[in-house]
Task: structure prediction
Amino acid sequence: MNVLMLLMLAASLLSGAPTAHAVRQAGQLIQAAQSAMEAGGGLFLSARKGRVAPGSEVQVINETTVMGDLNGDGVNDEAVIVKRLRTDGSYEFDLAALLNEGGALFNIADTQVGNNPHIFSETITNGEIVIDMSADNAVRALSTYELLGNALIKRS
Result:
């Protein structure tokens, strides 16, 4: 199980009114995620382009995580919207593409999606990320992104 999924599972265990057993399970999942990140470095790119774990510099918008093959290797990769702390102290929202290399996900590319995005749906189909969203108080639109090397390119 990858780091992001471990953290998401831990968060789901702690939602609502968690039992003591759920808290212990979540703690074990978080420890497993921390160990995996320490072994392979951070999961996400920070504004300074260093690798960081989800937390203060990069926050994962959990309900936007989708899986599918982005690079044609037959292995599920992921796409997720993240809230990233900029070097000036403000925030930006980015679409992050995460490749799966031997079961470990890493953030290979990202692109800005606007402020305060509202995601209606997100899928990975035929190597493309398709997002139905609105941002910056704009009209709802369907956007398609493709991973080319280490860049996400908007196709429509």
About this structure: The mean pLDDT is 78.
